[in-house]
Write a structure and sequence with these properties.
Number of domains: 1
Structural class: mainly alpha
Number of strands: 0
CATH topology: Helix Hairpins
Radius of gyration: 17 Å
């Protein structure tokens, strides 16, 4: 939750006055950040400013790491000890 709030605030302040941006208020920034964190994407275009591009890339990497970690945790939960291969 802290990461979501931090990225939402940062993107809002970087994009709010950029010409051609679609992020004009904190709620649009929060929606954009949540959709990027869920890795499902939205119809919102990518950021305009180069600083927000850096944040966008960092958020995508963070989201992939979190999803991969959760997938590994779920896989480990369902792994049965008797199905282990040779050590």
């Amino acid at each position: 939750m802290l990461v979501w709030v931090a990225f939402s605030v940062a993107v809002f302040f970087l994009e709010r006055h950029a010409p051609g941006t679609d992020i004009h208020n904190p709620w649009q920034s929060a929606y954009w950040t949540a959709s990027k964190m869920s890795t499902i994407g939205t119809s919102y275009p990518n950021p305009i400013t180069w600083e927000a591009h850096v944040l966008d890339l960092a958020l995508k990497v963070y989201a992939v790491i979190i999803v991969a970690t959760l997938a590994g945790a779920v896989g480990a939960f369902f792994r049965h000890p008797h199905e282990e291969g040779p050590s």
